[in-house]
Amino acid sequence: MKNADLSIRACDRAMDLKALSAIWFEASLLAHAFIGERHLRQQQILIEGKYLPNAETWVACIAGTPVGFISLLDNFIGGLFIAPAHQGHGIGRALVTHALTLRNELLLEVYTANEQACSFYRNLGFTELSRRSEDDEGLPFENARLRLTRQSSASALKA
Fold it and tell me: How many structural domains are present in the chain?
């Protein structure tokens, strides 16, 4: 992918909700298979009805078509999801870089079983602050809390 092919814009909830929900679900099936499809479908209802409407969301597009998004709750990344067909092409890095232009630091939680995401965040320069043995719903899925500052990210995000 050429960087010129990618644009990042603010979410238009009326226009983007279903596309972003589909990206979230497809990416979650791959990254969070350990949670199970049935539970992910239940979470998708919350994604559409609660999380996306209440977050500051930025959409990555190629030729005007959404291919990924990052949702911010102040400086907390509530979600970063890239359509599976577009993963590994720098879109996630571009979205995190964009978010860092808006915030001095970024926080997030990631399932430690999602090794691809953990590696991605480490490569961007995120550092681990803590871990907990359960997710937000009290299920036994370990989460790591990570932090990235604008100052500490300068070299990692240019790669």
Answer: 1
